[in-house]
Amino acid sequence: MSRKFSFTVPYAVPVEDLHRALTGDGVWHARFAEAETATFDLSHPEGAGTIRIHMTETARRDKVPAIVRTVLKSDLVLSRTDYWQTLDGELAKGVFEATTTGVAGEMTGAYTLRPTAEGSEIEVVGTVKVKVPLVGGAIEPLAEQLYRKVINSERTFVEQWVTSQASA
User: Fold this and answer.
1) How far apart are CA 149 and CA 156, in angstroms?
2) Could you tell me the CA-to-CA distances from 72 to 36, 97, 144, 155 in Å, in that order?
3) Backbone phi, psi, residue 46, to 5°
4) What is the pTM of this model?
5) Could you list the pLDDT tens digit for every one of the 168 residues in the chain?
């Protein structure tokens, strides 16, 4: 079974500035500068204004929900790849895919970046599937919540980074 989800993340940053940050290397180098258990790899497969970001992180065992710890076979390693396309007018599209080791899970979906009166927003639409007998359906909402937390944490970081770059 799989679970569909969607949510929107508001940014107090204009579309052009947000897209420039998301498809540039600077924000990602800054984001991962002090990440002890995370790695990342950047490329621009279709040239300027596009990016592929592959991120991995080993979750600290004390941060893993109890229901997940009961089925873990090894460390919980999260791997996520985001692809962003060029800005087309005031819209940009992206896709993401994520997998886990330790618990067989996968997440896929799409991003749409668009302007709002306050700045911009990213709509996230996806599907999560956890392949664990009996408890997979209970873990899927936790995986979605974790993804929302990660995306909102990125929003806070990116907004601060864009603001700091503008005043530098």
Assistant:
1) 11
2) 21, 21, 18, 30
3) -120, 25
4) 0.88
5) 788 999 999 999 999 999 999 999 999 999 998 888 889 999 999 999 999 999 998 777 777 667 676 666 767 788 999 999 999 999 999 999 999 887 778 999 999 999 999 999 999 999 999 887 666 677 788 788 888 988 999 999 999 999 998 876
